[in-house]
Amino acid sequence: MQHLLTAGAQRALGLAELISGASEAEATDSRHLLAALAHEESRAAEILLAHQIAQAMILQEFELTLPGTEAESDLFATQVPLELSQAIQRFPALRDVLNQALEQASQTSLPVEIGSEHLLWGVLKTEGPHTQWLLSQGAISADSVEATFQSQNQHVAEPIDVDFAFRTVPATVSDQTNTFRTIDAAANRLREGLRVVEDFLRFTLDDAHLTRLLKSTRHQLTEALQFIGQESLIASRDTLQDVGTAISSTSEFDRPSLEHLVKANLKRVQEAARTLEEFGKLISVEAAAIFKQMRYALYTLEKSVLTCVSSQHRLEDCQLYLLASENLCHHGSGPAIRESLAAGVRIVQIREKELSDRRLLEHGRRVRKWTREAGAILIMNDRPDLAVAIDADGVHVGQDELPVREVRQIVGSRRFIGVSTHNIEQARQAVLDGADYLGVGPTFTTATKNFTEAEYAGLDFVKQVAAEITLPWFAIGGINADNLSAVLEAGATRVAVSSVICNHEHPGEMTRDLLEQFAR
Ligand SMILES: Cc1ncc(COP(=O)(O)OP(=O)(O)O)c(N)n1
Ligand SMILES: Cc1ncsc1CCOP(=O)(O)O
Ligand SMILES: [Mg+2]
């Protein structure tokens, strides 16, 4: 039986071959194909992008080179569809990848057509240096994308409609020069804006994770401009004749705070990316596709940066977070909550696993009243619906519970969403998913929640998060008055505790003990 590749998959293989040639490799392998898949405007590129994996990062990691703009491949001509057996013959080092792709494609379409997303699946299913790297960068693996295939109950055989074959060149020389001028100006605006945001991330937020993401966006710009041609851009530059240089709006000088400044520049870079994408389509569809990727990456980055800034303000006074559970408390959780609020706790979580919904609602309303009177934040564990019902300030969810996007639909934009994380990849992902704060642990062994020995993230995880994440986070798990100083030394500035306060004969006293250690 014939198994055909879609036009997008075929072009990706063609580009993979060119990349392996430009990188002077002996054979076209998974790394080259991965770089090519990230380049195409295709389902594979969308999946990679959703995991924050850009082509520039792949090229850098595996020391690959993109072919020159003039490089062509017979595989780009899609009038002659490639058959799987021909592809295997031409790319022997990709045999396993292609067979895995076939297996996945066979589950969703008849007649079988292998698309770029199936090639990506094949790459993820085949062990190699790229698999570990992908997992560490974007937490992407065959398992994590499997749902994408399962949700495609109706497979659409056509590739995403892109006009690679119909590269449009502006009709007149003057149109062409003006297009290059526009691209040159927008690229400069984008580069400068990215620099401003990067300096903010480095020197004000001091956030290594977001700085790294922004850097990879800057690399994408360089990569896209290679398709346009630096010489053409410089040749068409005409700053003296640019009517825009004399026009400045008062709002351009209106930056009352660092936050305004970074917001304005985030908007500016998105606008510049849109201009590049639109005008880029007239010169190079490849470049336009990268500009589009950049625009989406910048939206995610904007959200993460602004959430980080606003959560830092909103959680400014919240160093000690109490998780209150009835079954841990000597005299019920009510007195523990009220005493610790009186002693200075500014954020409380209702963590009840055994109460019926009706009792949880009643209890929640009482705790809402106490926390409101104390001016403290109230978070409901596990239950976005009940968070809304009791008008809590937020909800906390674990790795196996509803994802942030779904929780946001329920609790709205102003409530906190806290996410538990147990390793650095989960922490990075939660930042990009739009969490407002993180739980980081377990730090020490605890009787409050069951973990296997292997699940103890320990102080090393606390140190990792401290080194790169500035979205507010709380170290959690087995923290008490004796080991708190070690947690703070590891870089935590906030901790969440349960048994040490709930179990104490005088919860207020223990709260004061712990809070005093933050003041030292
Ligand atoms: C602040 C904070 N961090 C972590 C957790 C744990 O949440 P989860 O992993 O969902 O486990 P349960 O608490 O639901 O058993 C938390 N609740 N709060
Ligand atoms: C809910 C939870 N998640 C990670 S550790 C933990 C338990 C925290 O309780 P304690 O402070 O009693 O160890
Ligand atoms: Mg939970």
From TrEMBL:
| InterPro entries found in the cross-reference section | Aldolase_TIM, Clp_N_dom_sf, ThiamineP_synth_sf, ThiamineP_synth_TenI, ThiD2, TMP_synthase
Report keywords, A-Z.
Magnesium, Metal-binding, Thiamine biosynthesis, Transferase
Q: Does the keyword Metal-binding apply?
A: yes
Spell out the Pfam families in the cross-references.
ThiD2, TMP-TENI
- This one is known as Thiamine-phosphate synthase
List where the protein spans the membrane. Answer: none
Instruction: Name the job this protein performs.
Output: Condenses 4-methyl-5-(beta-hydroxyethyl)thiazole monophosphate (THZ-P) and 2-methyl-4-amino-5-hydroxymethyl pyrimidine pyrophosphate (HMP-PP) to form thiamine monophosphate (TMP).
Write out the catalysed reaction. Answer: 2-(2-carboxy-4-methylthiazol-5-yl)ethyl phosphate + 4-amino-2-methyl-5-(diphosphooxymethyl)pyrimidine + 2 H(+) = thiamine phosphate + CO2 + diphosphate; 4-methyl-5-(2-phosphooxyethyl)-thiazole + 4-amino-2-methyl-5-(diphosphooxymethyl)pyrimidine + H(+) = thiamine phosphate + diphosphate; 2-[(2R,5Z)-2-carboxy-4-methylthiazol-5(2H)-ylidene]ethyl phosphate + 4-amino-2-methyl-5-(diphosphooxymethyl)pyrimidine + 2 H(+) = thiamine phosphate + CO2 + diphosphate
- Per the UniProt entry, the Enzyme Commission number(s) are 2.5.1.3
Gene Ontology, cellular component aspect? cytoplasm
Q: Output the Gene Ontology terms for molecular function.
A: magnesium ion binding; thiamine-phosphate diphosphorylase activity
* Source organism of the structure: Gimesia panareensis
Q: How is the cofactor bound?
A: Binds 1 Mg(2+) ion per subunit.
Look up the domain of life of the source.
Bacteria
Which residues participate in Mg(2+) binding? 382, 401
Name the pathway: Cofactor biosynthesis; thiamine diphosphate biosynthesis; thiamine phosphate from 4-amino-2-methyl-5-diphosphomethylpyrimidine and 4-methyl-5-(2-phosphoethyl)-thiazole: step 1/1
Keyword match Coiled coil: no
GO:BP terms for this protein?
thiamine biosynthetic process; thiamine diphosphate biosynthetic process
In terms of PROSITE patterns, this protein maps to: PIPLC_X_DOMAIN
Query: Which gene is this protein's source?
Result: thiE
Q: Which SUPFAM superfamilies match?
A: Thiamin phosphate synthase (SSF51391)
Q: Which PANTHER family match?
A: THIAMINE-PHOSPHATE PYROPHOSPHORYLASE, THIAMINE-PHOSPHATE SYNTHASE
